[in-house]
Amino acid sequence: MYTVLIIDDEEHVREAIRILGDWEGLGVLQIVEAADGRSALDMIAARKPDVVMVDMKMPEMNGVEFLRQAERDHPDLLTIVISGYDDFEFTRQAIRSKVADYLLKPVNRADLNQALRKAVQVLEARRERQSELINRNITLNMSLPKLKEKLYLSIFERSFNRQSNEAFLPLIGADKTNGRQMAAVLRVMNFDDICARRFNQENALLQFAVANVLSDVGGKRLQAFSFADPKLAREIIVVYSADGGYADELAFTAGILVKQAVATLADLFGMQVAFGLGTPCPDVLELAGSYEEAKSALKRINLLKPGTAAEAGGISAGRESRGTTLGLAGRMGQFRSALEAGNLLQARSVLADYLGQLRQSGSFSLAEADVRLREFQVLLGDLAAELGAGTELLPGAGTGGQTERGGGPDFADFAQFEAAMAAMLQQYGERILESAAGSRPFQITDVRDYIDRYYFEDIKISMFTEKYYLSREYLMKLFKQQYGVGIHEYMQKVRMDKAKELLGDPGLKIQEIADMLGYKDKNYFSKAFRNYYGLSPSDYRAAPGDG
């Protein structure tokens, strides 16, 4: 009854699909093959297949180009995309196109036949019912994940109406009498970094990758349906469901699967993922409580305990932290005094003292970190406005503190939280200092602070003489009187101190360190290091102790 076209440049992949497919059971009478997208388009015009299976990486014409042309020339053609974990950046067109399903390599028998069965069901529906209502239902079926997402969100928000949504209950298992469900919430702690490095700054692709891993790691009796939190892109909501079984069994299995998914995401993409789990419930309409428990468990993660940000918050994480009463509002007078005086170093000292008190509290939750970051941003924004400094282009300004992707800066532990707070102070502080630079007298500390911040740049003394209208000789004399060394000597010291620190990280190559310090090449850096310390960077790294 049906014809299937397999497009893949690897003959063994096409042969594997031929072997694994339940063609007779699916009513497929003819299987044709093509090795590239161009010949496949000719074959579609000649053979008119009902279903096309296409690999995303091919010579001549890749899967992305094929999908675009096929969608234009054959809008009713059902397509199943085949790709691999590392190919997500090439599958943007697959996400946008009306593909029937997406298979990851290596293709297994169960996933293959499930995708084909889904396509055949759509074909049968088209042939059996031609009315406008059924056509709308087919379109709805192709958007099933989005519909399920909306249903689950309405349950979490406690706005779901069983009577008005009666027809959709089977889609989420709400019609089953023996089903069990539970919710989990995952947060990608280094969302912005991974989104930029691995997914070309497209959060939809990152979320798609996470959803695929969660689904792939699912057990035989446990289904995982996941989607991004519409209010916070870095968080992924997962609903685990099973037919029958005990609540404890579901909770135990879901906990194992989440940990496996977290490990897989770390291996594949370098993601740092924290999560919280809710308790199982017998009725899908009771999932709101499970979701709130999962969210609360995630927020309770203590950033002061190393490693907990990559482990489960879990349903046994204990009572919710009462939190710290160390607010920032009472310290804004100190920040204002320091920044009005042009002393960013003093402002950093005020922040370091505050962060030190937080660290000594012994418990600092993820929820508290979110609150403190947002509070600091609002307070700094207000201070900048009062001092006449524009903040329109600073992260979060005018957007309720949400970045374009994750919603706030990356941090996976307290040290990274400290770095995020320091970066925020630096950004707002520099804007305030720039605004005030024309109205206050020159201070030699400005030159030192600039070198401390931008040691990796090609710093020239003329930059300061032109900015402050001072002679080269006078500026260099002032600096040496204040700090005991010349400007060039100080720049070299800052770079060499930083070099020793970076060499302590075995994961960094000498070339990478040279780049980070602003040297032209590795040899130039090695020569400078040897002249300063009397041994090469490699010898320093290999020497016992910390040098």
Automatic annotation (TrEMBL):
* Organism (species): Paenibacillus aurantiacus
Primary site of residence: cytoplasm
Q: Which UniProt keywords apply?
A: Cytoplasm, DNA-binding, Phosphoprotein, Transcription, Transcription regulation, Two-component regulatory system
- Modified positions (4-aspartylphosphate) in chain numbering: D55
Its domain of life reads Bacteria
Q: Which residues form the HTH araC/xylS-type domain?
A: 445-543
Name-wise, this protein is: Response regulator
Q: What is the annotated localization of this protein? A: Cytoplasm
Taxonomic lineage of this organism?
A: Bacteria, Bacillati, Bacillota, Bacilli, Bacillales
In what residue span(s) does the Response regulatory domain sit?
3-120
